Amino acid sequence: MDLGIKGKVALVTASSAGMGKNISHALAAEGVNVVLFARTAEKLEAVAAEIREKHGVKALPVAGDMLAQADVERLAAVIRHEFGGLDILVLNTGRAPNPLRATLEETEQQRWHEAYQNQLWGTIQVVNGVLPLMLDRGWGRVIAITSSSVKQPMPHHSLSTVFRAGVTAYMKHLANEVGGRGITVNCVAPALIDTSHRTGGAAYTPAQAEARRKLTPLGRMGKQEEVCGVVTFLASMQAGFVTGSSINVEGGMVGAMI
Ligand SMILES: NC(=O)c1ccc[n+]([C@@H]2O[C@H](COP(=O)([O-])OP(=O)(O)OC[C@H]3O[C@@H](n4cnc5c(N)ncnc54)[C@H](OP(=O)(O)O)[C@@H]3O)[C@@H](O)[C@H]2O)c1
Fold first, then answer.
1. What angle do CA 11, 15, 19 make, to 5 degrees?
2. Contact, 194 vs 212, CB < 8 A?
3. What is the H or E stretch that residue 34 is in?
4. Contacts for 229-233 with beta carbons within 8 Å, 24 or more apart?
5. Which residues pair with 246 in a beta bridge?
6. Is the minimum distance from the CB of 68 to ligand 1 under 6 angstroms?
7. What H or E segment, with its residue span, contains residue 228?
8. How many CB atoms lie within 10 A of CB 199?
9. 72 and 125 in contact (C-beta within 8 Å)?
10. Who contacts 115 (Cβ-Cβ below 8 Å, separation ≥6)?
11. Omega into 99 within 30° of 0, i.e. cis?
């Protein structure tokens, strides 16, 4: 199926590794030119080179920190200079502070502050910086990566869930405000996605993996490409009447009917 987004320009934040990198590849495979943004320049350069070679699109690495206003302003200026505007914005972030703990054990202000900055403020700051590049185009797609824990809290995830819920609320407000400019705004809410890329091997002990598998009717962890597929669909022409929504990608873990 032609998704109708060939030649569009996408910014994917937190894209030097993991889900952000995979989403960038998935969009590039549809002929989308991608701007990659994360802190580590060498990793970004390598991802950009891979994307250019594999998909034949433009891939522009911009090294910077989502938490640094000057870096986000520079990112917006580079996109304006190189592409004249932006069509697709995928808001991926770094992870909540490790290790995640039981809620009553999350007593340190510093960890709450870091979680807020990483997940909520960084996202808002990027929207502030780059959304003006989308407003004049009369068409756009904003997709935030949140967590299914917003719908069904997972044990030990409060440090993440609280701010992903904040991102979800922010995106709903934004959807209401920019819909009239042709821009849809949605969340993709994953859980139980295999992140063995982070450790170079199994991310969980066999007992942890088994416990996770039991949480879903599908009886397995999710694959990165299963998140990428939903993001790519939301970026497509065909998803034009979907806005203000959150789509879970969690193998049926969430017990609610809708
Ligand atoms: N796996 C799941 O089931 C699941 C479920 C729900 C949500 N998530 C969320 O999905 C997101 C991606 O997960 P992942 O496993 O792909 O993470 P990851 O492998 O740790 O990658 C995180 C990316 O974020 C970048 N980054 C971190 N802080 C940044 C900052 N301040 N500014 C710019 N870039 C920054 C990192 O690059 P640099 O270090 O180079 O900056 C890296 O590219 C995370 O937020 C995670 O919590 C995952």
1. 110
2. no
3. strand 33-38
4. 229/26, 230/188, 231/23, 231/26, 231/27, 231/90, 231/143, 231/145, 231/188, 232/3, 232/23, 232/26, 232/27, 232/30, 233/3
5. 187
6. no
7. helix 224-235
8. 9
9. yes
10. 96, 97, 159, 160, 162, 163
11. yes
Tell me the β-bridge partners of 146: none
pLDDT in tens, 36-51: 999 999 999 999 999 9
Q: Which tokens in the block code for residue 116?
A: 């807020």
223 near 194, Cβ under 8 Å? yes
The one-letter amino acid code at 153 reads: P
Residue nearest to atom 4 of ligand 1 (CA): 191
Q: How confident is the model at residue 201 (pLDDT cuts 50, 70, 90)?
A: low
Cα 188 from Cα 144, distance rounded (Å): 6
219: exposed, middle or buried (Cβ count in 10 Å: 0-12, 13-18, 19+):
exposed
Instruction: Look at the domain 9-249 and name its fold.
Output: Rossmann fold (3.40.50)
Q: How do residues 94-129 score in pLDDT, each as one tens digit?
A: 999 988 899 999 999 999 999 999 999 999 999 999
**Ligand 1 touching residue 190 (CB < 6 A):** yes
pLDDT value, residue 83? 98
Probe target for ligand 1 pocket from 12, 16, 100, 114, with the most ligand atoms within 8 Å of CB: 16
The tokens describing 84, both together, are 């004249």
